[in-house]
Design a protein that fits this description.
seven-stranded mixed sheet; 11 strands; single chain; four-stranded antiparallel sheet; globular
């Protein structure tokens, strides 16, 4: 089955940047819709950003819009999340997930619709 491995989390100061990546194996590069999700301490897992299999369409939760950018390199089987202007409330475990089929709209991306999950990478934003 598809395997996803996140990396690139860590500690950043408020206003700083991180760029986690998600490397996949066991799939055709352009065959999966993908998303980033996060789970903060004491909170439910929530969607952060999703991207279509081709990379042509993206969606962001309002909390990160204008600060985060999702992208993918299908030749490398990798999805990225560029996180700028980080805030303490961005602190969470960030998970990469993939879906075998497409959404009617990428805005329909959600936790319960994903088929494969990585184990997460911790992002901590603190002074």
């Amino acid at each position: 089955q598809l395997q996803l491995v996140e990396s690139g989390g860590g500690l950043a100061q408020p206003g700083g940047s991180l760029r986690p990546s998600c490397a996949g194996s066991g799939f055709t590069p352009d065959n999966y819709s993908t998303g980033w999700f996060r789970q903060a301490p004491g909170k439910d897992r929530e969607g952060v950003s999703c991207i279509s299999s081709s990379g042509s369409t993206t969606h962001y939760t309002n909390a990160v819009k204008g600060r985060f950018t999702i992208s993918r390199d299908n030749a490398e089987n990798t999805v990225y999340l560029q996180m700028n202007s980080l805030k303490p409330e961005d602190t969470a475990i960030y998970y990469c997930a993939a879906k075998r089929t497409s959404w009617a709209s990428v805005a329909d991306c959600g936790v319960y619709g994903m088929d494969y999950w990585g184990k997460g990478t911790l992002v901590t934003v603190s002074s």
